[in-house]
Amino acid sequence: PPRILTLEEPVLHLEHCIAFAVHGNPAPTLHWLHNGQVLRETEIIHMEFYQQGEVSEGCLLFNKPTHYNNGNYTIVATNQLGSANQTIKGHFLEKPFPGRIFSYLQSKGLTMTPKSLCLDSKAFSFQVSIAVGLAAFACVLLVVLFIMINKYGRRSKFGMKG
Fold first, then answer.
1. How far apart are CA 103 and CA 121, in angstroms?
2. What is the pLDDT tens value at each position of the chain, 162 positions in all?
3. pTM over 0.90
């Protein structure tokens, strides 16, 4: 039956990695649970491993995890002869707003949801285009002023050399 040899706490390499090693013959199938729920692999969270003989070694990789990814991670290895599981706590980030801010917002009748924190993409792109347009206008204005100062600023009105 499968046996979990190692399961390590998350470590940051290029991505956060929960390293594991599982032994089993026949080779076990592996899947993960997050806080008791089946973990779906996405482009943000995925598993990479390689089989070397009877040992599977690899990582559960996290690409820029947030506080939503904190919790207990359980690896489950299963083959025809049985199954094995082991759990480890993964802590990546603290919640962004301490309880005092949430209680203040709630006392004012405001709620803080991910949707309310996001900017409308059309309004944001319009603001960016306005800022870029103003910056381009300022650059053109500075170039014109520089040319005019160089062209007309050198002549003395009364023929004096200064």
1. 29
2. 999 999 999 888 888 999 999 999 998 999 999 999 999 988 889 999 998 888 999 999 999 898 889 999 999 999 999 999 999 999 888 877 665 555 666 666 665 555 555 556 677 788 889 999 999 999 999 999 999 888 877 666 666 665
3. no
